[in-house]
# Entry
Amino acid sequence: MASEQTKEPEADMSWAELKAPLIRLALELGPLIVFFAVNTMGEKWLEQSPLLSSWFSQPIIFATAVFMVAMAISLLLSWILLKRVAVMPLVTGVVVAIFGTLTLVFQDATFIKMKPTIVNALFGAVLLGGLVFGQSLLRYVFGDVYKLKPEGWRRLTLNWGIFFFVLAALNELIWRGAPMFTDSAKAADDFWVAFKVWGIMPLTVIFSMSQLGILKQFAPDPEPANTIPPVAEG
# Structure
């Protein structure tokens, strides 16, 4: 009985540790999945609704409008459920609002396709630029979650800065290159949307897992045990 009682707090504690990351993951994935679903079904919906087709010239533009709403809801839920909005989703939301609005006003999907390039290049430039001035900026974002030695933060910041630029280059390659392999603008749009949802996120997860070694290697040294001998009671 005693052993069972000691295990229960550990289970509760592990769930408490997992709860916030799982909520963040769901809030980040939610708008992307909505974007993918609306783009996939959008052509049918636009054909069936004269009102929607008068507002949106292409399924991807219709999906962009819904994506903007989904991002706003995601940020609001983050504030309600987690009592905070992380810097990266907030910046992403602002850029989505700007480039999404341009997409809707000009009825041109080029703007929303450029959004991942702008966001990832911005994150990469900020992180690598911080290193130039001796600042590991990831520490200010994740310092409450991970505890690392200064060299660990430097390497982690460097790796993520480079990775963000790789994602920016990949996005440019996909959205600019897809039309070269198909005569259908819709097929090119669908390929880019699929890459945005099912390509970037898995790549990010795999890269994150590859950085676990740094978290272990540069974890702070354990505090020395208290060596003061106990005082005998007299």
